Amino acid sequence: MKLSQLRILTDENISPKMVSFLRQQGLDVLDVKEETWQGKEDKYLLKQAYLAKRFVLTHDSDFGNLAIHQGHKCYGIIYLRLRSLKFQNIIRIFENLLKLEQDFSVGNMIVVEEARIRIRQ
Fold first, then answer.
1. Could you give the number of structural domains in the chain?
2. Which residues contact 5 (CB under 8 A, 6 or more apart)?
3. Alpha-carbon span 53 to 13, nearest angstrom
4. Residues 16, 22 contacting (CB under 8 angstroms)
5. What is the pLDDT of residue 101?
6. DSSP-based three-state secondary structure for 80
7. Contact present, 32 and 9 (Cβ < 8 Å)
8. Cα separations (Å) of 91 from 35, 42, 49, 70, 105?
């Protein structure tokens, strides 16, 4: 699947501006804050994303730890590991991601940095 085809669950640390931007790009986004799930454990959110077949979009490395090291079921994770969390920087990087021809699979953990993207199966 291309990034533009992924269904996403945005973690509570993702700005409402980013949620709006993603929706403007045509992505199917479910936001933790809109669901009133803020404050819920990451395990709970990872499970909800798995059941709804959504990739978790987050700035939090804990989701990867839960999936990789603790064996929790995971539909997919997009971890924005950026030095600058300014909205303009995140948008610029995400616009570049949307242009990629990269295919992503269920279970992928995608680590996005300013200079590279790493994909873990």
1. 1
2. none
3. 20
4. no
5. 81
6. strand
7. yes
8. 23, 24, 23, 31, 23
Q: Whole-angstrom Cα distance, residue 116 to residue 108?
A: 16
pTM above 0.85, yes or no: yes
- Structural domain including 47 reads 3-120
Query: CB–CB of 2/102 below 8 Å?
Result: yes
- The string of pLDDT tens digits covering residues 33-57 is 999 999 999 999 999 999 999 999 9
Are the C-beta atoms of residues 98 and 25 closer than 8 Å to each other? yes
Query: What does DSSP say about strands 109-112 and 117-120: parallel, antiparallel, or unpaired?
Result: antiparallel
- Reported as type and span, the H/E element at residue 109 is strand 109-112
d(CA 52, CA 75): 9
